[in-house]
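Next comes this protein.

***
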Amino acid sequence: MAKTRHVVPNKNGGWDSKKGGAEKASKHFDIKKDAEKYSRELSRKEKGELFIHGRDGKIQRKDSHGGDKHPPKG
């Protein structure tokens, strides 16, 4: 199973970077852009998937950083 990392809204304000399946955030940020940058760096190191959520909790974007057994050709 691929490692996942999520940028999610914090119920008390700001944004959290969480490892997939974790209850507790790895790190908290006031600004979403900062949470995305931090999470993307970790996702690249972990060769996993990054999911960026909106304020409503729905996934807005996702990025793959390796580990894909069937990458697209070209």
